[in-house]
Amino acid sequence: MRYSKILDETIKNIVPSSRERMVEKERELNSLLKTPKGLGKLEELAIQIEGIKKDYRPEKKIVIVMAADNGVEREKVSKSERIITQYVVEAMLQGKSSINALGKTFGADIEVVDLGIDESEDTEGEINLTGIINRKLMKAGTRNIVEGSAMDYITAVKAVETGIEIADIFAKKEYNLFATGEMGIGNTTTSSAVLKVLTDLSLDDITGYGSGIDEKTLEHKKNVIQRAIDVNNGKEGIDTSDIIDVLSKVGGLDIAGIAGIYLGCAKNSIPVVIDGFISSVAALCAYRLCENVKDYMIPSHMSEEPGMKYIIEELGMEPFLFMNMKLGEGTGAVMMFPVIEAACNIARTVRKYPEVW
Fold this sequence. Notes:
Strand content: 5-15%
Distance between the termini: 52 Å
CATH topology: Rossmann fold
Oligomer: single chain
Radius of gyration: 20 Å
Structural class: alpha/beta
C-alpha cells in the first residue's frame, strides 16, 4: 500500500535488528560469572539492544511528548476539560510537570510537540506555550469522532510523518535513546476506539477509567466509542487493513505522531521505549505498518488501562515494571532508562572475570 513518499521510504528503510549480534551477545552473557540467564529479563534486554547496535551505550536521552486535543472530549468522556491539555503542556515547558521531575532524575531531556492543541480555550491569554515544537496540523484538535472522521486521511499521514521528522531531528542531534509520551484530554477514548477497530475485542475488556471517571461515565464512554465506530463504518466504512484509515476515522493526532516516532527511531536504528496505553496503541499501529519496527521497541510498564495487556500480547512483549501507573506523559517510559543502562553494563562490567559456572 502506498501512503506517501516519506512514509513509504521510511518503512522500506527499516530493517530487522542483527540476529547475529544477538546470538553473540547471548553467548557472551552465558560465559559470565553467574548462573545461566540468572539476570532474567535484564539479559533479554541486553541481547535485544545488542541487535540494534553493537556495544550500545545510552549517551543522550530524550522523551518526546506528542500533544493534541481530541474532539470527542466534547462528549464528556473525561473527568477533565480540554483546557487541561494546555495547563499540563505549559507545566512541561516550564519544567514543572511529573515528566520533568523524572526526566531530571534520569538525565533525559523533555521535548513537547504541538500537533493540534486547541489554544482557543485560553480565553484570557494567560497560558504560555513558549518553547513548544510547533507542528500544528489542526488548530482546534481533531473533530468529534461521534459525528464523523477525526481527521482527513492526508492529515493522518502528515501526523505520522511529523513523528518521523521529529525522530530524525533529534537523531541528528545525537540523541540515542528515546521514550514516547503524550498529552491530550480524551485520548484514552480515541485509543480504545482504535484498539476496538483493530482487534474487535469487547469494549468492556479494553476501556478504562482514563482520567479517573466514575462507573456511570465509564459506561457512557463505552457507548460513545461504539457510536463513533458505527458512524464511521456507516459513512465511508473503516478499512481495518489500512492503519492510516483507522487513525483518520477514530484516532488522534497524538497517536499518529507517536507511531511516527517509533518508525523514525527504527529507521535510525535507535531504541525507543513505549510508555502506557496511548503509546502502546501507537506502537501497535506502527507495528501494523511495519513489523520490523518491533525490534527497536522496548516496553516499560503495565498501564492500569485494561486494554494494555492485549496490545502487549499481540506485540509479544512483557513489561518490566508493574507500578499501577496511569498518568501518561512518558512517565512510565522514562523509568526504564536506568534499567536499559543496567542491561548495557552487564557484560561491560563483568566480562573481565573468567567463566566458572
